[in-house]
Amino acid sequence: MKPESLTWTPSPRPGAAEHPERPGQPEPSEHPELSEHPEPPAQLRRIFGLFRPYRGRLAVVGLLVAASSLVAVASPFMLREILDTAIPQGRTGLLSLLALGMILTAVVSSVFGVLQTFISTTVGQRVMHDLRTGVYSRLQRMPLAFFTRTRTGEVQSRIANDIGGMQATVTSTATSLVSNLTAVIASVVAMLALDWRLTIVSMLLLPVFVWISRKVGRERRRITTTRQRQMATMAATVTESLSVSGILLGRTMGRADSLTRSFSDESERLVDLEIRSSMAGRWRMSVIGIVMAAMPAVIYWAAGIVLGAGGTAVSLGTLVAFVSLQQGLFRPAVSLLSTGVDIQTSLALFQRIFEYLDLPIDITEPERPVRLGAVRGEVRFDGVDFSYDDKSGPTLKGIDLTVPAGGSLAVVGPTGSGKSTLSYLVPRLYDVTAGRVLLDGVDVRELDFDTLARAVGVVSQETYLFHASVAENLRFAKPDATDEEIEAAARAAQIHDHIASLPDGYDTLVGERGYRFSGGEKQRLAIARTILRDPPVLILDEATSALDTRTELAVQQAIDALSEGRTTITIAHRLSTVREADRIVVLDAGVITEGGTHDELLARDGRYAALLRRDGRPAPGEQAPGTDERVPVAEPEPAVR
Prior knowledge:
There is one protein chain. The chain has 641 residues and is an alpha/beta fold. Helix content is 57%, strand content 9%. It contains 21 helices and eleven strands. It has a six-stranded mixed β-sheet with strand order 7-8-9-4-10-11. Strands 1-3-2-5-6 form a five-stranded antiparallel β-sheet, with no helix packed on it. A hairpin with a 2-residue loop joins strand 5 (434-439) and strand 6. The longest helix has 49 residues, at 92-140. The model is unreliable at 1-36 and 618-641 (pLDDT under 50).
């Protein structure tokens, strides 16, 4: 006995132009939502926030750094005592003790350095992990529209290149910053204790050095932003042109050399940016290095001037110890300046990552979602309107439909009428602009994601298979499925015999995007995967439109097995596949113009009958018009290529 009839309420057809049925028309690669850049102080606060979960470990690193810096500062004072007291007075015991102290100082500093490097690297890698996972998790929750306007290589570049480029910053910069800052402070205090006059001479040029490093940092940040964009463009080019489909298209169109030249041009631009990034401010930083290398001579000169002017003489030990401290000051000071430049450079990378972390998520779970136990499968469209954006106008308008549990609905219409868009609203790939889509009387926007994913299965024309074995691809729908369950699903999908005939059976590698299998075989694998998941509601989005007649029959038999006992919504391009549907509706320019059974619509001789005449294709096994021949049924497909 058939389920109760589908209800249908026609709505007036708008006079607007036809809207694209398929989502994701190309848009400019620049996302308007990514255009704003926060000020560096706000960005730095956010970066520091990344380390907040690890503040305990960072406190230990800080203690180790401070201890290491203080121990290192002791060496120049011991050196002064050696030169001014132990050697001139011949006190070998004191000399031995001081020499041993200097050796122990080096050992302790080295041990502390190893420990702080281990802890800081661990923290840095955990932060890297948090960033990668955060970006990936965010992208998993983005609406489908985001991916239709974003190149895959751009997404990959953000996760791989941008986060990878920050590795040195997050693993060593924080430690370097604390270590060098502590060393600078300790060295300045020690220098003041040795001789305040020489300390003033040493510090005169420090403000100039800071100004130069800030200028270099800003320049490198600008170049880094441009460089990362260029790397993303290259990654997108590689992803698109070196995929199986890209290689096929390039070779069959004779564009392999052109693509190579285009990639070479992109690479050439990257070379220029890399050179500019490496050389940015290099001469300015070299000036700093030259000045710092000349400072010992300046200190010796200053000490001589002080002595010649009748001032208090500086002892040899104090002078040597001071120069040693000065070098110990300048090394961390230069490192601090370089760290500042690196931070400025890394701000560009952090900004690109934060842009993705801040992307707005349009489709979210409610705070208190509804969880359904057993789903009957009734689907209802209640006054549904939908637009992809404010500029393109409505894609669907005033849709009122009810598909009873276990019933079947076929949606037909010309290309661009909104058929696929209608089907995308049930699993919430998009949310309605107005109205409601209800599952068992509950608005799908109120359901939790797990319930919706368990309730609604989708088989589309564009089958996606992972580069894994047949069994692994099927288990993606049900990770704990047994071998018997997998085989039963494959049998129901009319693909088991073919899989069993392969040398490796269910362990056969399907290849990139399933390319080792034919279109019909991939479709049946997708159907088997859906059967394994066992959803009560099934969306078939033109699942046979790209197949030849023989293959279509085999896939149709699998679809029939899959549809049995389920609520089925079929988006049809070939009208021969929907004649047995409980109800058929004709969609045109986003509105329903007709509805009824196949026979009722033929008798009405309206839009459906016109589409059927234009289609001019009988169902597999039926007699072709004007001939005594029947459309052939399926035959075994060729083995794996």
